[in-house]
Amino acid sequence: MRRDTTAYLWLGLGILVFAFPIYLTLIGSTHDASTIGRGDVPLLPGPLGAENYANAWNGTGGGRIQGSPAGLMLVNSALMALGIAAGKIAISLLSAFAVVFFRFPGRMIAFWLIFVTLMLPVEVRIIPTFQVMVDLSLTNSMAGLIVPLIASATATLLFRQFFLTIPREYVEAAKVDGAGPLRFFRDVVLPLSVTNIAALFVILFIYGWNQYLWPLLIINDRSLETIVVGLTKMIGTGDAQNEWNIIMATAVMAMLPPVAVVVLMQRWFIKGLTETEK
Amino acid sequence: MSRAAPASFLFRGTALPWLLLLPQLVITGLFFFWPAGQAVWQSLLREDAFGLRSEFVGMENFADVLSDPTWLGAFGRTLVFSSAVAFLALTAALFLAVQADRNIRGSNAFKTLLIWPYAVAPAVAAVLWLFMFHPQIGIFGRMLNAAGIAWDYKLNGDQAMLLVIVASAWKQVSYNFIFFLAGLQSIPKAVLEAAAIDGASPRYRFWTIIFPLLSPTAFFLLVVNLVYAFFDTFGVIHSLTQGGPGKATETLIYRVYTDGVVNLNLGSSAAQSVILMILVVGLTVVQFRYVERRVHY
């Protein structure tokens, strides 16, 4: 019994350490800027919640803030995250299908060409990749935000791993029935992959939403700004005179979509996480 | 491709499989092989002051980078920063996972409450910690100052380092927690019960049975955490300290960014990128060799 109590205590403390920063931010987003600026950090909600969120949403925070409207930035972030997740899943399904279910000249070369990309995250080759974007005039565009980030081997490897567990006899049966490879892909492989796609989608959506260095580099156009980058631009050098209430409301909105995805799709999230990384 | 299937279990053809591979290969070629090649090529060149001409300088950029005391400083700082982040995030996660693995009521709710910070972007995590530790507006920043400790991470380099370490580790704990918990739950309960019946104390059981069985997970997580601390924490540093004060929180990836984007020193930045690539490839190879060994026993 005593050991259970200590477990509860420690877990409670862990949850507190995780939740307190969020609580403080939520509270801050319901007060006025001067209360927070003076440093009178309140611990109970204030009256200005609706007003602050409306101002943050519309980008009408007043004089000192030149932030883009959070509503617009949220749309940009959502488009980027959905585009990255959908793009990665689509190209990976196709290439894993080709590598697993076909025998053709150059198969191993294709596999290794994809596989080596597993090793280098985009941050490592960020400057040369940026120059390629300039050469292709893809900077300041949604395509430029999305397309370079869908080149990665993780999803392909996951699908390959899964496809190898599909009984080979299915292929033979499909052949006997006169079904071609594309029909087999659509009627057998895709339906069997639904849970894997869902699991991967959760992981990739969060990966896309939380991108930072890449959007920071290739987007100057304020109308394409994502919310994570826009949020830190609002802070600047962290001056105490900032309109912190608006910034905090924006921070809450930047966190909400990915956190909601994790909490609501928890089962798929854990499946996706443990299977993509192993 | 270890599993060799008989031909009748596979489709034939050349054009179709290559067509299916085409989207991924084009994107990989354009945004992976081309830039990686460019980085290697540029690391061998040097541009004149006006960016008009560039000449081949061989390994000179690398020699310059590796003998530059400020780069070596960033390198040492990255080692300190990354090991601190990995150590904090791993120990806190392991501890919480051991608690959550107990058969207690509501353990599922606890799990949900502990995993969601995974979804918070590193840059946003930094902002949350800024709200708490800002010397003027942060509740803890003000408390520290009121208690007579001169706390201002914008002036004091050690404090800045401490803050970026804690904010980076905070965000990574839930990731490690998920993996440790999965590892703990795959340990056969019979083994632990047998040890308990033989009179082994909980602490003894942890260090002699649980911890060795978890070590593959721990090692895998160590590599993931180091890679996270090397690269993904750019957002934390950029939004909290911009590498400052001075260069107190300038890590290698931050340095690549400032040299390439702010100072436009492409040759040096490319050489630094190549060095980072070698580091990551090295880490990955170590990980794969280890994982392979694990598969065999």
Explained architecture:
The complex is a heterodimer of chains A (278) and B (297). By secondary structure, chain A is mostly helical. Chain A has 15 helices and no strands. Chain A is globular. The relative contact order of chain A is 0.15. By secondary structure, chain B is mostly helical. Chain B has a single domain, classed as MetI-like (MetI-like fold, Orthogonal Bundle), CATH 1.10.3720.10. Chain B contains twelve helices and two strands; from the N terminus they run αββααααααααααα. Chain B has a two-stranded antiparallel sheet with strand order 1-2. In chain B, α1 crosses α12, α5 packs parallel to α10 and α8 runs antiparallel to α9. Chain B starts with 14 loop residues before the first helix and ends with a helix. The chains are: A mainly alpha (278), B mainly alpha (297).
Number of domains of chain A: 1
Q: What is the string of helix and strand elements of chain B?
A: HEEHHHHHHHHHHH
CATH architecture of chain A: Orthogonal Bundle
The name of the CATH topology of chain A is MetI-like fold
N- and C-termini, Cα separation of chain B: 21 Å
Q: Could you say what the CATH architecture of chain B is?
A: Orthogonal Bundle
Structural class of chain B: mainly alpha
Estimated helix fraction of chain B: over 70%
